[in-house]
Structure formats: structure tokens, C-alpha cells
Amino acid sequence: MNRRALLALAAASLAGALPAHGAPRERFAQGLLWRVTRKGVAPSHVYGTIHVADERVAALPEPVRRAFDGARSLMFEFLPDAYSNERFLEASMFLDRQTLEGLIGRADFERVLEQLAPIGLTREFINKMKPWGVLLNLRAPQGGQGASLDAQLGALARARRLPLEQIEGVEEQIFTFDEMPLEAQVALLRHALAHRDDLLALAENTLQAYLARDLAAIWRLREEYAARYPEVASHQAAMLKRVVLDRSVVMAFRMQRELRRGQAFVALGALHLYGEKGVLALLEEDSYRATRVF
Questions:
Q1: 281: number of CA atoms within 13 Å, CB side?
Q2: pLDDT at 259
């Protein structure tokens, strides 16, 4: 399994993870590329990406390319390598006698096998996967083919021999999912299996909102989806905190090591940009100023 693909699918597979209550105010609601400035430091840029390979996001918009061309470094959420791929895969598996079928029952296990069939994994392998590992592998078709924005930026940076940095390590990303209570993992997995068509529709609508550079719409789509299923609201709220809000705090702090050098280009999931608890608002609390470019 590809390490990047696991995280790229999280938004679609865990799309109900944003609860209808407690949403941020309408701040940083529109725009994907932001110029970040601070007195005495050369400007940098923060770019919100979407972690899918789809022909509709196959080309970098011209304003994004211009900002990238002026950068001296590129920072991602995470830079996968052979070790981190293997480590993440290992962490997503039961290493004791537990099995997925034993946790979720025969009927739901058969549905997992059906929905993971395109990956080509064996029944025995899937039966040793933890629920969160299955969730991140529930594949949703994205309409077309193409390199993800992260992959494109990485290739351009390597061609220019730009320094590449990462915000998080593999153990932190594992912790985000592995420390979630097993009860919540099972509940969210069963929900995803039962509502696959709804999640596919949500993924497509999210991509459309992204293409419109409408961060508030991306957030509202998930609010509306979560409101339809109050039976898993507590688990969804826990996932929101772990996957989006807590990680945004870490991102806003750690990206500053590059922002202080100036002329950095930081690429991270667009949902981390939005609202009072997003990275842009958090940066402004640390005396930076974020101005929309695109």
C-alpha cells in the first residue's frame, strides 16, 4: 500500500468527521494561496492542497506556480519514504490475535472485502487490519487520473534542487489514528460501509468546492453531512479534533522555522487554512499577516 495514498484518502473515507456544532466563524473562508508576511522577514506563501489524484487539479494555477517559482524551500505536511511507508503499514495491522472480522462481524467484514477488492489484498491480510487502516483505504473514485498537487510540487522542487522539509513525522501521524478508541474506530468504519454512496457524493462535492477555492463551503459540506448522522456525532467530533484541529496547531508552530527564513512555500491540506482555528489565524496570533493571493 502506498503511504501517500493512505493519507490522501482520509478526507473521503472519514468525511463525516466534522460535526455540525462548534464550527469556526467565517474567517479565511475563500482562497487557496496566501502570502504570509512578518516585519523583517522576506514574504512566504501557504498553499492549501487537496490530496487526490484527479485531472481537474492536474495543473498548478498560474498564481501558485509564480509563488512557487520564487520560493527557496518547500515544506509539506509529510514527506513519505520507504521506511515511513512500511512503518505506517505495520502500525495499521493487528499484531496480536485480534481480527477485523472478530470486531465488526461477518456481514460487515464481507462488505469491507467487497469495497477493498480494487486494491487486490488477500482476505487474510485485510482480516489483520485495524479499523482505522481500513477506513484510510476505502477507495473513492475521483473521476479522473493525474498526479496529485503534492506530487507535482515535489517533482518541481526536486528538479530545482529546493530544500524539502516536513511538518510531521510518521510516528505522529500514526498516533493520530492509532490512539483513537477502538469503539470509535469500529463505529466510524461501520458508518462508512453503510453510507458509501453518500461519502462518494461528499467527496465529489468537496472537490467542486475546492476548485471554487471556497474553504467555507468545504467546511459546511461536512457540517451538513455530520448533522444527518447524530448517532456517530461523538466519534466524529473526536476525529475532527485529532485529524484537523490538533494538527493545525502543530502545523502553525512548526512551519514557522521556514517562515522565519523567508521565501518558503508551505503546502498543506486546504481544510487546515479555514477559520479561527486554522493555521492562518494561528499564524496571525504570532504576529504574521496572511493576505489572500488566489
A1: 17
A2: 98
